[in-house]
Each structure stands twice: as structure tokens, then as C-alpha cells.
Amino acid sequence: LAKLVQGLSSTDPAVQKAAIAETEKRLHGQETGKEEESKTVVNRAVINTRASDIANAEAVNTDGFVAILEKDAKERAEQRKRNEHLANALKEKGNDAFRKGDYVTAVQRYTDGLERRRDKQELYTNRAQAYLKMEEYEKAIGDCEWALKCNEKYIKAYFLMGKAHLALKHYSESRQCYEKILQIDPQKESLFKDCMNEVNLEEKRMKDEERAVKEVQSGKLAALSVKELLQKLARPDQNFPYYTGAITLLTAAVKDCTEQTLFRTNNGFSILKDNEVVRRGFCAERKSPAEVDLSVSLLFLWQAVCAGNEENQRLLLTHPDVKTQLPKLLSSGVSEIQKETLALIALYLENENGRRLLVRHQDLTRWLQILMMFVNSADGRASSAMDVLSDLIKEERFKTQSRVMLSTDVLPLFSQSLTSAKLVNQAALARCIGIMGNLCADAVIRTRMAECRECWQACLKLVDESFDVRTPKFQECLFAVLGLMMNLLLESNVVIQSLAVDISGRCMSLLGETDGRIVTRAIGVLSRVLPASASAVEEVVKGGVVKKMIKFLKAGGQITSSYAVKTLSICTRSNRQAQEDLVKSDKRFSVLLKLLDSEDEMIVGNAALCLGQCLVVPGAATSLLNSDVVMVLLKHAGGDATRTSVQENAAIALGKLCVAEPRHMFQLRQLNGLAILNSSMKYLH
Questions:
Q1: How far apart are alpha carbons 475 and 320 in whole angstroms?
Q2: CA–CA separation, 400 and 16 (whole Å)
Q3: What gap in Å lies between CA 143 and CA 137, rounded to an integer?
Q4: Where would I find the TPR repeats (predicted)?
Q5: Distance CA 319, CA 300 (A)
Q6: Where are the domains of the chain?
Q7: pLDDT at site 289
Q8: Number of C-beta neighbours around residue 322 at 10 A
Q9: How is domain 363-494 classified at the CATH fold level?
Q10: CA–CA separation, 615 vs 457, rounded Å?
Q11: Mean pLDDT over each residue of the chain, to the nearest integer
Q12: Where are the alpha helices (DSSP H) in 420-533?
């Protein structure tokens, strides 16, 4: 019975269907039993009185079973109604994102909806449409197949599957999908004809282009020089396949700097100016497949003539059409064009002169946003785009231009990428986060990012998801986002103050991670966020932060120790519980005394500060009577550390020590400490 109820509650349609069938079978058996009972004649044999008890028990069990089924059916109907409502709401959110061109978010919303209703066919086809826009054709086909499992006569699924197969050049499979549409609904003959014409035209175009290229390569053009090929390209009476083939041959002819020079001296960079057909194809907003091939061949050619040649690079970048088209090619959405545009740009970034040339002659206002979008790409474009960004952020001009659209375009896109971390290219996302962290070296960019609440919330969401996604790539995203948070926490604002409790809480949860790099950065974030909120300090102290920091300090590691002792100094500044926890966890202050011997002045200064703040705890100063704490503090108070906070904190700690336990004064006098302390007063404010 329990198994049957579980089956009825299952989200798997197949399991649910089997359970319903079994239930109906049992109920039918009960009804048959009742009919047989009404037809029974009197049995004159000896009646077994126990049999009636068994029958009564069976009746009770049957009634209970039916009641359970009825209750379960009612609950399932209510749950299904709720799920239907939620799935529809998520579908609308996905549709809204799709209309805005945010296909990654659309996919996420449709996926969330399918978690509520796995048999909702339109969610599968809507997600398939988004995958088509993202050029994830195999995934689109998979979703269409799932939609057809929900409804084998779903025309939209066949239509989208046909589109996906066509994009993959699966012409036969595409035709089969469109034929299915006509079989299901003969009234769709007009749609069927349009679709079949599209397949036929695309297949014919591919064959024509292959034939044209073969003709070019096997004909007289193959034997021509660079100069002669450029003359042929100037002819305005040929089609796109002809020019594509000729440009391909020209690219092959440019083998070294001699051919590069010949290309330049024979006006090779005037191809776009002299040939309107080539220019029209290259500058077309929405390119046909033939125009795509032409543009790709031009990009290959320019890579060949510009590789290692600064003069050619300058001439190409100063060409008006190229200057205008580069950002458009990057954001074209055509993978082949984007790939070769990125490769061309990479040539300029191989050395400082090329990089300066690119920055000087290009309006880079939108480049940060455009290149960031490649984190949605699953192929090599994502890595190439991050390589370009990594080089561009070395230029101050790029940082300055990136400020223009930072708040309105870049940060919303970046926040969305963080929110969709499970769906995007995580290796590229980790690099993108690191790049944004490096951009924080620019004070204006850092201030704006730190004031962006959506950005902070997206960072926290990624941290939350890291507990469920344990892959190495996602861990790199987590490591990078913690570094970004540390950089942003160099700022202080109301957004950080309002989120300090949440940020510190996430960091406390990360202290149990096995990756030491992540633990170190989590402590680093703690050390920078806690000064923003007394409530955050109170919460982490309740969570046992003092004991955890002492544990990390015992383990060593200079960077971790620096962050951990700073965290302790913040917590013990005004929180009595933290002071008592430290005295209890660090017996006789052995850990802090060891830190006072560090060569890192920041560690020494914070250790002295922390020690001084904990001496108010009864018995703390007395526990140090037989130690060399007076001599150590005196050495730092009268030392020549470059950070005056070392002398200041050591002098204050020494003063508090002697006030809390006067017996330390004896050793202080022996060491001529009063004179040293007096000279240290200049550091006190």
C-alpha cells in the first residue's frame, strides 16, 4: 500500500501512470467482490465464526485504503494545481527574458518551470527556441524530443526540431520533421512548403559554394600572384562564392613579410572600398550564409597580412569600415565570425605597440560588455574573449572607457552571469570574475561596483550554489568571487553595511572547505566586512569565529594568519564574548605571543592590538606573569617598524598589561621600560 501511495505521488509521469492503473485494478476487484457477496446463497455447512472477524478486518482495511487513496488524490490535485500556476509564472518570466535577448536567463526560467511540471510541453519547446538562439542545436533537438513524449502530435516541436537539424546541415532529418507536420495537420501545407523551400535552398547554396570554390582553386586563379589576385578581386561582376574562393587563395599566397608588403603596396586594404559587392557582404547587418563565408575569409586574410606587421595593423584599424564593424562582428552571434574576429584582435594584443594601436583607434566603450557575453559560449570563443579582456585591462584608456556603460549595461550583465553560473562556461566565468576584480584597481569602477546591490546578491548566490556544485570549475568561480568581494570591501557604503551579516555568514560556512585557498579568502572577506557592522561581529562570535581563527593561526600560513589575526582584532575590539573566547581558546596567549615574533608588521600590529583588548578579562594578565611578554612588547614599542601602528599597539598593550597586573611593572623597570614607553607616546593619539 505504501509503495502504491508513493507511486501516485511521484513526479515521474510513467511511475504515476502505472500506480493509477494498479489502483483502478484493485478498486475494480473490490466492486466485483461486493457483487459476488450479494449473490451468495445460504451455506448450510458449519459456519466458522472467526471468518466473519477476518471479513470485517478486511472491510476495515479496504475502507482505510480507499480513504487514503481519496485523500492522496485530493492532495495530488491541489499540488498539481499549485505546480501548474508556478510553472506558468516561470514560463512568462522565461518569455520576457527571451524577448529581451537574454537567452541564458530564459533557459534557466524554463528549466525551473519544468522542475514544477515535467509534462508541460510548451516549456520544452520554449527552451528549445532559446537553445536555437544560443546555437545549442543538439540541446534544442533533445528538448523537442521530450515535448513529443508529452504530445506526439505537437507541431511546434517538429518545426523547431527541423530548424535545429537544418542548422546542423542535417537536411534529410530536417525534411522528415517538416513532413511530420503535414501528416499531423494537412492544413499546414503552406508552412510545409515554406520550410521545405528553405531546406532545399540551403542545401543548394552549400553545393553551389563548394562547386565555386573548387572551380576557383582548380582554375587559373590558383596560379596567380598576390598582385594579380588583388586585381581580380577588384572586379565587381562576380558572386560571393567567387570572391570567397579568391580571398582564400590570396590568404594562402601571403606566406611571409614580402607578400605582406606586396599586399599593402598594391592597395590590398582597399578591397572594401573598390568592390561594392564585397563591402556590402562584409557590412551587412544580418548576413546570409554566403556573406558569413565571405566575412570569415576576409578575417583570415587580414590575420595573414597583419601577423607581426605593425604598419599593416595600423592601416587595417584606420580603415573606416573595419573600425566600425569590429564590435559588430564580435556581437554578431555568428560563431565563425566571432572566432576569427577574436583571433584578429589577439594579433594586436601580442605586444604593447599593437595593444596601444587598438586602444587608440577603437571606441572601446561597449567592449567590456560585448566580450563578457562570451561566458555563455561553450567553445573556444569564451577563452579567446577572456584572453582579449585580460590584455585590454592593462590599458588605462580601456578602464576609463569602460566606466561609461558600467552601471547601465556591464554590471547587470555581470550579475546575471553570476546568477546563472550553473549554466554558463564556468572556466570562462572564473576568469571573467577575476578580470572584474582586477578592474577594481580603478577607484571609480570599484566604487560603482561596491554600490551595486544586485552584484553583491549575485556573488552571494554563487557562494550558496557552491555547496551543491562541487566541480573543480565551479570551485574556481567561488575562489574568484571571494577575491572580487575582498576588493570591493576596500570601499565602505550603506549597501555593504546592510549585507554584512549575510556576507559574513556565508564566509563562516566556507571555513570548513577542504580547499585551503578558499578558506584563506573567506577569512580575508571576514576581516574586511566585519568592521562595517556590529551585528555581523555579534553573529560570527556566536558562531564560534574566535575558536576557528585560533585553529587557523596554529596551522600557520602567512596570508591566512594575517587575515585571521585581523579578524580577531576586530571581534575583540568591543565584543566581551569574543575577548573571553580568545582567553579560553588561546591558553596563556601562546598563539598571540608567537605572532608577535612574526616578520610581518601587519601581523605583529594586529596581534598586539588583540592582546591589549583581551587583557580586560579577569586573570588574563596574570596568566602572562612567567612569560617574556613585557620584553617582546617593549621591543616593538621602541622599535623602528615602518608601520607606526606596531609601536602604538605594543605600547598600549604594555600599559594595559601593567594596569591589569601591577607585578609586570617590576620587569618593566628592570628593562628600563618606562623611558621607552615615554618615547613611544608620540605614536599615541
A1: 44
A2: 60
A3: 10
A4: 121-154, 155-188
A5: 17
A6: 1-25, 119-205, 219-361, 363-494
A7: 87
A8: 21
A9: Leucine-rich Repeat Variant (1.25.10)
A10: 39
A11: 87
A12: 426-439, 443-450, 453-466, 472-488, 494-510, 516-529
> What is 119-205's CATH topology?
1.25.40
CB neighbours of residue 422 within 10 Å: 15
- Work out the angle between the directed axes of helices 380-392 and 352-361 (0-180°, nearest 10): 90
> And the C-alpha cell for 505?
555568514
Rounded to whole angstroms, the Cα distance separating 198 from 51 reads 76
Phi and psi at residue 530, to the nearest 5°: -60, -35
What local confidence, expressed as pLDDT, does residue 639 receive?
A: 81
Nearest CA among 388, 324, 315 for reference residue 357: 315
Please tell me the predicted confidence (pLDDT) of residue 682. Answer: 56
State how far the Cα of 501 lies from the Cα of 535, in Å rounded to an integer: 7
207 vs 407, more confident: 407
DSSP 8-state symbol, 440: T
Check residue 47 and report its DSSP letter: P
Q: Give ∠ CA 112-116-119 in degrees, rounded to 5.
A: 105
Distance of alpha carbon 432 from alpha carbon 438, whole angstroms? 10
Which residue's entry shows cell 528538448? 143
Q: How far apart are CA 69 and CA 11, in angstroms?
A: 17
Q: What is the CA radius of gyration of the chain?
A: 36
Start-to-end C-alpha separation, the chain? 78
**Which of 126, 179, 174, 183 lies closest to 150 in space, CA to CA?**
126
Please state the rounded mean pLDDT for residues 371-400.
94
The DSSP symbol for 587 reads G
Cell output for 82: 499549485
333 φψ region: left (φ > 0), alpha (ψ -120 to 50), beta (else): left
Question: What is each CA distance from 417 to 136, 289, 408, 423, 547, in whole angstroms?
Answer: 18, 30, 15, 9, 36
Contact 392, 398 (CB under 8 A): yes
Cα–Cα separations (whole angstroms), residue 559 to 191, 450, 528, 632, 635: 66, 24, 14, 22, 24
Q: What SS3 state is found at 204?
A: helix
Nearest C-alpha neighbor of 126 from the set 150, 145, 110: 110
Q: CA neighbours within 13 Å on the CB side: how many for 274?
A: 12
How confident is the model over 28-67, as pLDDT tens digits?
A: 554 444 444 434 344 444 444 454 454 454 444 566 666 7
| pLDDT of residue 641 exceeding 80 | no
Percent of the residues in the chain that have a pLDDT greater than 70, as a whole number: 86
Q: What are phi and psi of 596, to 5 degrees?
A: -65, -15
Closest listed residue to residue 503, CA positions, set 469, 520, 527, 477: 527
pLDDT at residue 508, as a whole number: 97
- How many Cβ atoms from other residues are within 10 Å of residue 40's Cβ? 7
Q: Which three cell numbers stand for residue 158?
A: 517538429
- Encode pLDDT of 559-607 as tens digits: 999 999 999 999 999 899 999 999 999 989 999 999 999 999 999 999 9
Given a contact cutoff of 8 angstroms between Cβ atoms, the answer to whether 601 and 642 are in contact is yes
C-alpha cell at 363: 571606441
